[in-house]
Amino acid sequence: MLPALLAFQAAAPVAVPAPPETVAEFLLQAEALAEMGNDAAAVSPEADAIRTAIQQAALAYRASLAEAAQRGAPPASCPPSPGQAQLTLGDITGYFRAFPQVNRPMPLATAFALVMTLRFPCAKTPE
């Protein structure tokens, strides 16, 4: 009986959540994490999915800043160097919760770019 049980457990698929693609999906997954509690949430596949989605949005945002710089266009924002922004999951969740319901279908990458623009505006140059 034990070998059959172990074989069944080994064959059981593990449900890995899809990374959120919109603000609404992000907020649903973040709420589910909050309900788990800090210890369980920190090591959960759900947390990994959210972290991956935010990292991808951050990379896309940095790439858009680099592309704008190459074109000679002014940057949309002036964030600190990569790894120095100090944005926590709680910070990002708070910004996304502030989005009106009508804007929550917004793609996560677009919403992240908007948050970065609001959080790290460029200093105005004197005219």
The proportion of residues forming helix, as a percent range, comes to 55-70%
**What shape does the CA trace take?**
elongated
Relative strand content: under 5%
Structural category: mainly alpha
Quaternary state of this entry equals single chain
**Count the helices. How many?**
6
Uncertain stretches = none
Radius of gyration: 19 Å
The number of distinct β-strands equals: 0
Structure in a nutshell:
With 127 residues, the protein is an all-alpha fold. The protein has helices at residues 2-11, 23-36, 38-42, 45-71, 89-97, 108-119.
Task: Give the helices and strands, then pairings.
Elements: H1 2-11, H2 23-36, H3 38-42, H4 45-71, H5 89-97, H6 108-119
Helix pairs in contact: 4-6
Could you please describe the fold and organization of this structure?
The model has no long low-confidence stretch (mean pLDDT 84). Helices cover 61% and strands 0% of the residues. With 127 residues, it is mainly alpha-helical. It starts with a helix and ends in an 8-residue tail after the last helix.
Key words describing this protein structure:
mainly alpha
